[in-house]
Specification:
Layout (H helix, E strand, L loop, with lengths): L8 H4 L4 H19 L3 E6 L2 H7 L10 H10 L4 E6 L6 H9 L13 H11 L2 E2 L20 E3 L6 E5 L4 E2 L13 E3 L22 E3 L7 E2 L12 E3 L5 E2 L14 E3 L12 H5 L7 E3 L26 E3 L6 E2 L13 E3 L4 E4 L13 E3 L4 E4 L13 E3 L4 E2 L3 E2 L27 E2 L3 H36 L1 H20 L1
Parallel strand pairs: 1-2, 5-7, 7-8, 8-10, 9-11, 10-12, 12-13, 13-14, 14-16, 15-17, 16-18, 17-19, 18-20, 19-21
Antiparallel strand pairs: 3-6, 4-5, 22-23
Helix pairs in contact: 2-4
């Protein structure tokens, strides 16, 4: 891919060609970084600019700001610089006079090499729902279903495919600029996750959840150092340890729900604490309690100040809910249901002002419900059922939870009436629900009988042939009975 950058004085309203040209070079380098192109060739008809770029001479004060930007941007680029005669630059001069200060031309359609790689990749897949019908060998692969290309370079940057079967062909690694790969919801017949996926180092988003993979998660995924989003949820996968994750410093979303982490249960929290910018952590049903020495929720999780969602449900964790979780100031969802947690609900959870969902159901929590939960004014979901909680709960404690709607609390979204007295707990709620269901059952039965009866009677009264047939039937039955 070649990007032409050209500049002229009037385009930037600068007083010199040098300032315009060095500004264009700076913008061109920024564009290369954005597009992921590491090799850059700069040709200039200005000897002064070339000498500055080759660091033969120092830039004048007027160019110092742009020069500092160029040095910073080009750190990770392979840049070659050359001087060309003014006459050889006539074409670019002409283009510059027709456009703006910096211009580029984009590739039309996908690259042949990437289209061939996708065709090879398709050959190992079964498509029972005809999702790949648009994958024509002769057509532009950027228009194929599930494919997204960069709008300038034409590189394939996104692959999003579902409901397929078969296996993943290594040709996939030829998509060297792929940033988004979602193969969730496919069926790869219990094959292991391919090691070669770890060589696709431009990936930012990887989702392989519920895709029919099995076996150990390859540590080669730790080579994907630019990953931001990683989802591997599956009940057929396992991991010996999670230390390979520490090579992915920019990770802010991790979902390994259902993955067997019994062998990693002793050190998983030490790995997770390496990600201070982690926003969502989903580790439900991961067998984190296999560590016989410590089945408690680690208090160290309270240091993940950027965390917005924490899911540790169904891990057979026991012990108290650590008060350190009150330090998760950004937390919006907390799911600890389906464990064996005991003790009181920590009052400090009421200080999580951003909390929208709180599920503690199915544990062994006891004591009173802390009144501080009434401070969670953004709460939409509160589930503390199937515990051993005691005492009455006055609605006045929860009068600020205006966004909370539905059982076990009264439904304020339908009625504005305020019930008086303490709210019922557990057994009273179940009894009321049973009575409510029985009333509905008998009401529906009665209504069905009445509608059926009046429908028959109405037709009988309006249809004369029906009446005649009805009376004939009974006359014939009477005659037959008299014969006996």
């Amino acid at each position: 891919m070649v990007i032409f950058c050209f500049a002229f004085t009037s385009g930037y309203n600068f007083g010199s060609n040098s300032r315009a040209e060095i500004r264009a070079i700076c913008e061109g380098l920024s564009l290369h970084v954005h597009l992921g192109i590491s090799k850059v060739e700069i040709e200039s008809d200005s000897k002064a600019i070339v000498e500055i770029l080759e660091r033969i001479s120092s830039p004048p004060w007027a160019l110092s700001y742009q020069w500092s930007r160029i040095k910073r941007i080009s750190t990770d680029l392979e840049v070659s610089i050359s001087h060309i005669p003014r006459e050889a630059n006539a074409v670019v001069d002409d283009l510059a006079k027709r456009g703006s200060a910096t211009q580029y031309w984009k590739v039309s359609g996908c690259l042949d090499s990437e289209r061939e790689a996708l065709i090879t990749f398709r050959k190992t897949l079964n498509d029972p729902f005809d999702h790949l019908s648009s994958w024509d060998d002769a057509s532009d692969c950027c228009k194929w279903r599930g494919i997204t290309c960069h709008n300038i370079t034409g590189y394939v940057v996104k692959l999003d495919l579902h409901s397929l079967r078969g296996r993943i062909d290594p040709a996939l690694v030829q998509l060297k600029h792929l940033q988004f790969l979602d193969l969730s919801g496919n069926d790869f017949n219990g094959a292991p996750i391919p090691d070669f996926l770890g060589s696709m180092k431009e990936l930012r988003h990887l989702n392989l959840s519920d895709a029919g993979f099995s076996g150990r998660i390859p540590r080669q995924l730790g080579n994907l150092t630019k990953l931001i989003y990683l989802e591997l949820s599956s009940s057929s996968l396992s991991a010996k340890n999670l230390w390979w994750l520490t090579s992915i410093p920019s990770l802010n979303y991790l979902d390994m729900s259902g993955v067997n982490l019994s062998m990693a249960s002793h050190d998983w929290v030490h790995v997770i604490n390496k990600f201070p910018s982690l926003v969502e952590l989903h580790l439900s049903s991961c067998d984190l309690s296999s560590n016989q020495l410590n089945r408690n929720i680690p208090a160290a999780l309270g240091g993940l100040s950027s965390l917005q969602e924490l899911d540790l449900s169904a891990n057979q964790l026991n012990g108290n809910i650590p008060a350190a979780l009150g330090g998760l100031s950004s937390l919006q969802s907390l799911f600890l249901d389906g464990n064996q947690l005991n003790g009181n609900i920590p009052a400090v959870l009421g200080g999580l002002s951003s909390l929208q969902s709180l599920s503690l159901q199915g544990n062994q929590l006891n004591g009173n419900i802390p009144t501080t939960l009434g401070q969670l004014s953004n709460l939409y979901l509160l589930d503390i059922s199937y515990n051993s909680l005691t005492g009455n709960v006055s609605e006045s404690v929860f009068e600020n939870l205006e966004k909370l709607c539905g059982p076990p609390l009264p439904d304020k979204c339908v009625s504005n009436e305020t019930p008086q007295g303490p709210m019922p707990i557990s057994g009273d709620i179940e009894k009321n629900e049973e009575e409510y269901e029985m009333r509905w059952f008998y009401s529906v039965m009665g209504l069905g009988f009445a509608m059926g009866f009046w429908y028959f009677l109405g037709v009988f009264m309006l249809k004369k042939p029906w009446r005649i047939a009805y009376y004939r039937f009974f006359d014939e039955m009477e005659h037959r009975l008299n014969l006996f």
